[in-house]
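Subject — a protein and its fold
Fields — amino acid sequence, structure tokens
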Amino acid sequence: MADFGGWPILWWLLGSFCVPFTIPWLIFKLYRHQKMKAKLHGKVVLITGASSGLGESLAHVFYQAGCRVILAARRETQLERVKRELLASRMDKDVVTHTPIVMVLDLAKLEEIPDQVEKVLKIVGQVDILVNNAGISYRGEVLTTKIQVDQEVMLVNYISQVALIKALLPSMVLRKSGHIVAVSSVQGKIAIPYRSAYAASKHAMQAFCDTLRAEVAHHNVNITVVSPGYIQTNLSLNAITGSGDKYGVVDENTAKGFEPAKVARSILLAVMRNQPELTISDITPRVAILLRTLLPSVYFYLMKNRALRLRQQALPKVT
């Protein structure tokens, strides 16, 4: 007999009420997901920084969704490796896949970007989705960081990204169709000590995309800004310091970060849903973002204490 004074009857009532609604809802969600995914079939997706890390994982998820993937980065040998692995990874035999295209692209060479884009457009006809994923990180103190370091980080993380967008945008506007994804960071929303150049470049990209989203909405061009927290990549290992040298350390937070494949799947879903923004992080950065917005004085106090605490450590090991 049911215990009307305890939990069993409550769970029975909830189950009896929810199940008739839950099953149809799950069926609808699955149908909607498959329908949205089908819209990606055959779409041309240009992914920068595709030779490793998150870019490589993004190449896999878009390839498995049936997209025609263009792999862009500086290292041709690594791009060819990713291409081979994509061709060997086909899982869904019902999904038509397309041979990936390798595009050697050095984003630091701004003058080459328009010509490179023109070449790829002659091959594929159009780029439906641009995923601006490439970038570099930085560790250092404002007081001792060379201005050339600020320039380099801003060039790669912001100026070159804008140059690539501007090279592709006219063709998207002409077709009244396109999607631009900017892989930013939670540091595009907040700033923490010893990340000045990196945070500044991500803030700039966030602001540019917010403006761009408003200006191209009537052209049916969608903008998605992705703000991840720490990801298990070589970003911190390849970061530059205030002197311009390589950081060469995998931060503890980075090592404990999200798996690139998980982040890539979340970005794919955001593209399918035309989400304007996507934040991928644990609770701490989300709270920090709220504090910076609602209680900035509290946020400033916490960052001041963080800076003082980290100053007691060796700067090259700041995490």
